[in-house]
Amino acid sequence: MKAVVKTEAAPGAKFMDVDVPEPGPRDVLIRVKAVAICGTDIHIYEWSPYAQARIKPPMVFGHECCGEVVKVGSQVTNFAPGDLVAVETHIPDETCYMCKTGLQHICEQMAIIGVHTDGTFAEYAKIPAVCCWKLPKDTNPDLGAILEPWGVAVNGILKGEVNNRTVAVFGCGPIGLMGLGSITAWGASQIFAVEPVETRLKMVPQFAPEAVLVNPTKEDAVKTILEATEGRGVDVSIDISGNAKAIQMAFRVVRRGGRVSLIGLPGAPVELDLTADIIYKEARVFGSTGRTMWQTWYDMQNLMQSGKFDPLPVITHRMPLADFAKGIELAKSGQAGKIILYP
Amino acid sequence: MKAVVKTEAAPGAKFMDVDVPEPGPRDVLIRVKAVAICGTDIHIYEWSPYAQARIKPPMVFGHECCGEVVKVGSQVTNFAPGDLVAVETHIPDETCYMCKTGLQHICEQMAIIGVHTDGTFAEYAKIPAVCCWKLPKDTNPDLGAILEPWGVAVNGILKGEVNNRTVAVFGCGPIGLMGLGSITAWGASQIFAVEPVETRLKMVPQFAPEAVLVNPTKEDAVKTILEATEGRGVDVSIDISGNAKAIQMAFRVVRRGGRVSLIGLPGAPVELDLTADIIYKEARVFGSTGRTMWQTWYDMQNLMQSGKFDPLPVITHRMPLADFAKGIELAKSGQAGKIILYP
Amino acid sequence: MKAVVKTEAAPGAKFMDVDVPEPGPRDVLIRVKAVAICGTDIHIYEWSPYAQARIKPPMVFGHECCGEVVKVGSQVTNFAPGDLVAVETHIPDETCYMCKTGLQHICEQMAIIGVHTDGTFAEYAKIPAVCCWKLPKDTNPDLGAILEPWGVAVNGILKGEVNNRTVAVFGCGPIGLMGLGSITAWGASQIFAVEPVETRLKMVPQFAPEAVLVNPTKEDAVKTILEATEGRGVDVSIDISGNAKAIQMAFRVVRRGGRVSLIGLPGAPVELDLTADIIYKEARVFGSTGRTMWQTWYDMQNLMQSGKFDPLPVITHRMPLADFAKGIELAKSGQAGKIILYP
Amino acid sequence: MKAVVKTEAAPGAKFMDVDVPEPGPRDVLIRVKAVAICGTDIHIYEWSPYAQARIKPPMVFGHECCGEVVKVGSQVTNFAPGDLVAVETHIPDETCYMCKTGLQHICEQMAIIGVHTDGTFAEYAKIPAVCCWKLPKDTNPDLGAILEPWGVAVNGILKGEVNNRTVAVFGCGPIGLMGLGSITAWGASQIFAVEPVETRLKMVPQFAPEAVLVNPTKEDAVKTILEATEGRGVDVSIDISGNAKAIQMAFRVVRRGGRVSLIGLPGAPVELDLTADIIYKEARVFGSTGRTMWQTWYDMQNLMQSGKFDPLPVITHRMPLADFAKGIELAKSGQAGKIILYP
Questions:
Q1: Which end of chain D, N or C, is more open, meaning fewer C-beta atoms within 10 Å of its C-beta?
Q2: Of D124, D148, D122, whose CA–CA distance to D38 is shortest?
Q3: Cis link prior to A47 (omega < 30° from 0)?
Q4: Rounded distance, CA C48 to CA C201, Å?
Q5: Which of A162, A166, A190 sits opposite B163 (nearest CB)?
Q6: Do B102 and D295 touch (CB under 8 A)?
Q7: H or E element: which one contains B206?
Q8: Same domain, yes or no, for A78 and A38?
Q9: How many CB atoms lie within 10 A of CB D177?
Q10: Residue tagged active-site, from C43, C63, C90, C105
């Protein structure tokens, strides 16, 4: 089969023939119908320090994926050929304290599909059954492929209250945009979208029509948000950028007693004024990673079924898997939403 | 001034002249601009056992009120003549454990305006400053008068999660209708409105356009709701009826791990199948009374400012205070929404 | 092997020879080292309506069990012969909404060991691996056998706050006694133990030395508790009796804003004064059943390791499995704590 | 009267005669019976940047205080001469969003006694009635004086679960010691006390007999704690030191899904590895300042009444108010617990 393979410990990747994987007793084999490009894929392609610390070439990468089950392992009872599934990237060990208390997504021995195991930039992929989420058969595979990144936003948003609250979102890339759409559907009373890239900021109204758009390179974002909230600040601040300055602003604008959700991953330690921004305010801070298994998936399913939000417009480009390098360049440019590849 | 007075321990009331009250050092005197009729007022008018146990004639009753401050007591610093205010009916003692831990609305020595003290079916009313909520001066007084009952719904709804949840509301009188509108704005994913009176049920779509309407006299409400939720039941069940059968249904349809909020006041003990409906399900049940001071009021303010819900359509009739008896008959009929009286 | 078998749909049971069960691919076979008698076993033995509705003879019953793994099914990877395990009675289906969101113990298609499948009043028992909790090999098997009932108390207690709170426990049978010990270790500030059977009440000080003992047949329990709490009532009320009158008292004595945990299973609907006891008080009520998998088990493990509480004194009688009928009579008498049987 | 006065914008203070203050209509005048030295007092005495930014000489400072009411303002109804009171240092404005939603202690316009108003290093002090907490008349005034700092610990500890949890406390000064005693009483299952000053570390066993003592200058605190918790880390990490390195350790040792409470006030921004220590772990972080009014005070009262913890041993020195300078030097040395001054 054709697949995108990280062949060596260096920048780049090859579109080449590899063997179709054989599912183990607890795996399913899926035929990939759509796969989206994630920031992690850029790291792997560019061979960043993040990638160097984790990736062992040769390997297939890619992981935001929707596929059809074509074969199931001998011990798999809850999936059958013909099932349409979205892929949960986190592979929990199912035996640690976290896994045994309902928090598999922060498993103590977590592995990641497309990072620690072969991924889904390929015609077929072997996926642990424990990582499959069944979709109605008529689901658009593009939608199936973006559930994984959308879930990153949903998980962080729902660490606390959001309905009837003032919310500031820092970072309006694809995850931020889907987050803004979700927050709007869930009844936030006032929304601020903070993003330095104009192309992204211009996409916000499609997702959150009433959001106040804030470009922190053109105005003092903290001042704008404080003034618009009677000087009090927002109830909820959500960082999806991972940018140190944005995170500092997120803490600056949250009100006393407010909540900060941290989703974006800063590449280096961040200086925080704990005294002013957390302690005196009695702020509550929640780290959020991946998707809660499986509450986050049900949350997305509920929202889709309610008809209140459709994340598909976050997809701006679609192309064959063979064009993956072009897709990765586009993603790097910051000018695209989600990019879908078709094997 | 003119006022509606419960003159004696018997059914009825008189529209008559009484002295304008003199505010004490911590009170304000308001000129009543609009006052709505509450179920409690019907009890008082009809001299029900509830009223007989609480009311000491002669007294002015009525309490869902918006007015303009015309005079303030010597110790009142946060209100001034000209302020427009809505009235919080609960008078907390400000010294008990509840009051000192942020729960004034369940004060251990609570008094109620229009029940334990003279009320607002009058041209002027004396209100403790601690019970006044300042409104923007251009607020429609009709809106100011229905904040109190709307807050009853909001308080009960927000005892837990509601965004992205399936919610069943039992009882679609005025409070139920305003609750349904709030739940819709806050992003419930699926809503069921259960009400035996067709006139009321027909008002629901104005408040919750996507709600499934269920008339329990015409269909098996429990069956309808279970079937529409894959047999699982709803995430949240809210009773605003106080009717024993409705409450039993509310418990029957809540899912395992779900939440029941009890707002309506049953007049007699209710039989519950605790084993099947609460214990085996690990249901969570929250009693809710009045409005949390002042979180509920901020919650309403936020929702109004967001423009996502306007409770005014719950008002179906408006008339002079002199016609109070006609208003009370209308309210009793179950065919009206809120009825506003103007002194 | 020898086992206690419910041979027919009638009162009684037989101690007889049956085949050693063969574990399926996801089961383990254990050699039973100690098994305790539960109220459910009495129902089965006496052929109560509860039993008639659930039990399909012939079957082995019993389920509060500690055993040594002697054989594992082909797909079992996390247990091996020689492991000492305690048995979780609830068999989750692992596919429903509850199971997939961390609430396996309220699975929508729950089966119960010793009720829906053969149980552990036997020399050997076949147990789904998903129901096994590994113990240090030097654990006293008696302790392993009472973890299941102790967990019933722990699960209900930890539905909310308990440290530094005033707590009333209704029902001081074995589960209540172990609950009282746990509450004491977790820092409740004041404890009331309510129980009509003097033998049981006299066991309380061993578990909760500072608890106020209340026999509701000899004094007005509600009055006693209210007077001892400045008329306010307790922060937390826990019913482990399932008795309607006790449940009504539990609601009567909880303070405004307080919590009620319902653990005991009433055999018939219970009349509650919802208006006075839940709504006006804004009480919070939590149904609790079985043990949260596996948080409750970790909670017990933590408490045992801290050395702050030893539940073993709840065991008052030990005898061979062959004497099961004598044990059941003792349990019925209300004069015993836990009774352990050894195959 | 005699008082300790910050007479000018420079290091030092004078013990001198000043006028007895006159209480306003909502104040009480107390005769100070005992007053403890706080870190803030050292700042003021030494004229640190913190003090320079806040203090306007001349003023009396000091604020951890117990006194007897000798006079009440015209509008004060809930206190009377003869009452013994402890002083809550935070003066809320009672009108902002925080104050109106039960969070007066994080008032948007907070003033602090002894910082923004004259304090209690004096024979008499004028205290807003809203800042007084009534004590039983036979309370030891020393105890009354240390409720304020003890409450700082209690407020931070009770931001979440503590019973049956593993807890690491960073910083064993007087507040840390009282916190350790409280955590012990509330049933933590395992406690680590981390403190570089040996004198302080040696005081820990008096407060938390089972705590593991960790001196981070002598061993790798992170390694010690991780090894003692099976590599998982603690459930709860509490920083009461304000030291950047300690805070970083607090984050390093908290387990996935664990809680960090920040109480100590770092003097400068702190670098945190948000990705590893908060986001990937889904840690929950709670800023905590002062005492929740009045829940924290009830929490202390409950704990005292339960007899499970006595904070008095934290007092190591007692002296006349005239010796305040000696007391401040002692406090600075880090070799003392709490120091009580008597006017």
A1: N
A2: D148
A3: no
A4: 27
A5: A162
A6: yes
A7: helix B198-207
A8: yes
A9: 28
A10: C43
Indicate the helix (H) or strand (E) that contains A202. Answer: helix A198-207
Pull the structure tokens for residue C23: 């574990």
pLDDT at D31 over 90: yes
- Both B195 and B299 in one domain: the answer is no
Upstream peptide bond of D294 is cis (omega within 30 degrees of 0): yes
Residues of chain A found within 8 Å of residue D263, distances taken between Cβ atoms: 279
Q: Which of B250, B271, B248, B269 is nearest to B259 (CA)?
A: B250
Say whether residue B250 is in contact with chain C using an 8 A CB cutoff. no
Question: Do D124 and D239 fall within a single domain?
Answer: no
CATH at B186: 3.40.50.720
Q: How many CB atoms lie within 10 A of CB B10?
A: 10
Both structure tokens of D63: 């604020």
Q: What is the pLDDT of residues A16-71, one digit of tens each?
A: 999 999 999 999 999 999 999 999 999 999 999 999 999 999 999 999 999 999 99
The secondary structure element, H or E, covering residue D152 is: helix D141-157
Report yes or no: D53 at the A interface, CB cutoff 8 Å.
no
Active site (annotated) includes residue A43: yes
DSSP per residue over D158-197, as a string?
Answer: TTS--TT-EEEEE--SHHHHHHHHHHHHTT-SEEEEE-S-
Counting the structural domains of chain A, the total is 2
- The SS3 assignment for A284 reads strand
Structure tokens at B249: 């249904």
D40 is catalytic: yes
**H or E stretch covering C54:** none
- D31 and D45 share one domain: yes
Do C35 and C102 lie in one domain? The reply is yes
Residue-wise pLDDT for B220-261, tens only, equals 999 999 999 999 999 999 999 999 999 999 999 999 999 999
DSSP code of residue D106? G
Whether residue D144 is found in the same domain as residue D275: no
Are residues C146 and C226 located together in one domain of the fold?
no
Half-sphere exposure of D330 (CA within 13 A, CB side): 20
How many Cβ atoms sit within 10 Å of the Cβ of residue A140? Answer: 14
Closest CA in chain B for residue A162: B163
Identify the DSSP state of C267. S
Alpha carbons D128 and D144: distance in angstroms, whole number? 17
Token pair for residue D31? 């005769």
Q: Which of C271, C287, C303 is the last residue of a domain?
A: C287
| Whole-Å CA distances, C14 to A285, C11, C116 | 60, 11, 18
What is residue B334's predicted lDDT score, i.e. its pLDDT?
86
Residue D109: how many other CB atoms lie within 10 Å: 12
pLDDT, tens digit, 9 for 90 and up, residues B188-214: 999 999 999 999 999 999 999 999 999
- C-beta of residue D25 within 8 angstroms of C-beta of residue D126: no
Contacts of B103 in chain D (CB under 8 A): 102
Whether omega before C294 lies within 30 degrees of 0, making that bond cis, reads: yes
Tokens found for residue D101: 């939603």
Q: Which residues contact C216 (CB under 8 A, 6 or more apart)?
A: C194, C195, C196, C245, C246, C249
Domain that holds residue C173: 160-287
CA angle A191, A195, A200 (to 5 degrees): 100
Determine the angle formed by the axes of helices C324-333 and C39-46, rounding to 10 degrees: 110
> What is the pTM (predicted TM-score) of this model?
0.97
For D250-277, the DSSP string reads HHHHEEEEEEEEE-S--SS-EEE-HIII
* ipTM of this complex prediction, to 2 decimal places: 0.98
Whether residues D136 and D166 share a domain: the answer is no
Asked if B174 and B243 count as a contact pair (C-beta separation under 8 A), the reply is no
CA distance A74 to C286: 41
Q: Is there a contact between A209 and A233 (Cβ–Cβ < 8 Å)?
A: no
Which pair of structure tokens corresponds to residue C185? 């270790």
The CA distance from D144 to D35, in Å, is: 9
Distance (Å, whole) CA C91 – CA C112 = 6
Final residue in a domain of this structure, among D240, D261, D287: D287
